[in-house]
Design goal:
The chain starts with a helix and ends in an 8-residue tail after the last helix. α9 packs across α20, α10 (about 200-220) runs antiparallel to α14 (about 270-280) and α17 crosses α21 (about 560-570). Helices cover about 40% and strands about 15% of the residues. The chain has a domain at about 1-40 and about 385-475 and about 530-575.
Length: about 575
Amino acid sequence: MANQSFALFNNLELDLQPHLGSALTPESSVAEVAAKTLMSSILMKHIESEKPDASLKAYEKFYAMNERCATYTPDVSTILSSEMLSYIRGYFANWYDSFSDFFTIRAFIDHMDLGSGTNIGSSDTSYYGKVYGSALSAYNNRQYQLYLSCIKASTPLQKSAFVQALLANGGPTMVQGSISYSVPKNADIRRLIWQEASIPMMQQKVLDKAFRFALHKDFNIDMTMQNTLNGQYAIEGSLDSDNGFCTIDLSSFSDTLALKLLDFFNFDFRLKDLINLTRASSGVHEGQVVEFNMICGMGNGYCSSLQTLILSSIVKAAYTVLGLNSEKFGVFGDDIIIVKKAWRAVTTFLSDCGFIINDKSYNSGYFRESCGVDAWKGKDVRGVYCTSIKTLQDYYSLINRLNVWSEKTGLPLPNTIQYLFSLIPKAQINFVPLYESDEAGIRVPKTLLLAWIDAHPFFRYCGKLYGLEHYRAYRPAIDSVDISVLSDNLRFIKSGKNKLAFVPDGIYVSSLKGKLRTDTLVTRQMSLRYRFLSCKGPDWDLCNSGTNAFLRLGENNHRCSDSYSLIIGMNMKFIENIA
């Protein structure tokens, strides 16, 4: 596999050589910046290139930030920062009263939820599997008592489901704290995540709903789309006008969000009590208990929304003090977009609070970076990341994403695409319409598909029938259980590799909450398998308007643009000559 990544890099370098010669300067073209960005990104997150100490570095960094939270004392260093702090303290002092409707027992019953991953005590990812099919878990009895209060005030069906689950699984498991695990970030260091207990996670999701509602009401931030807006603001900011946007990125922000900041920002005592009640006060790393000096780590149910709320209040405070209320801003997690006039006020206050300004923050020049967009002079020059190059789906995905990058930048990559194409066994070459997923097959315009068919009569293309394209594509194989055929005398359900307790009323509750797909119990796949299926869809050249990469393609009903057809034709012209 190392040879494949080496060959991939060499072919990219060959394709981009005309644009790689000179060092980047303010006069550099979009093509030059895009080429260098792709060369630096392509293997940055390659799993096979990960260093042996990547996990150790992740924990060492977390430990250092946790100690910083304990020792750093937030304070204001300027008169302007003092005025901003007064605004922030006033906002959080009144926050609970403004959103107290979220914190009644009835509201807890309505809003308790779980994330898409696993929780302590259950290896299953479905809502049913974590709430009813496995033993619940908590950090302390107070969390469990709040959960019991919700059950007592809930419907007879929910009470029955709880009792059935209690009889099948026993009482909740009390654990010392959240449990650490790491996920890939880049070749040098992994990202540390903390797996939460199930009961506090459900309660954290209530606070998450409240924080998201407050963001929308008070700051006009909708977290379902704010990352897209931040990307657009970054592109605007890269034009570097005097009144343009600048971008701020914070290093390990969740790990520097110290618990003492709740007092520093004057959080209402009731809100502070709810945060302390639902959070993990400690974590377990390789059997060792670590006391958290931060509010929460990555994996907490309200981590992202609370980060966004605090940073939004800081930006709004700066805008208010500076008289910039008519100006736009954007916050999503630790990605901040503000106008240049607020740069000094915001960065000074952030440093006063103990947050670390990342070197990926930009106030001048033509480069901006935010929420997955690298912008240079008004264009997105973000590279492509190859995390793995081992499976058929890896090949398909990389070819498709590199083709989109070529259309976006105008730089063809024929040698690279031909090399990746050569890795695919001939019998597994599969072309799909432009609206398909990255892993379904190789997306090509119909003109190129027909050229391939002319040269390869053996290739099976189903064609168009009754106005629909008929083709074959790879789809993730979903592990599911047909609950419509289950009988009441069952004790367990086999869900994927997991053995779950059978709780009939838990099935009904999960269904009423919208957690079941029709009559099936679906488990999130930890490692994907694919099936080769017959599919049908609309016009072959209809682009996927739900995929960011294709939003710009075609002005007429999202049909494939001429530029996209042209660039794929340049990247894949070689296929016409393959016997």
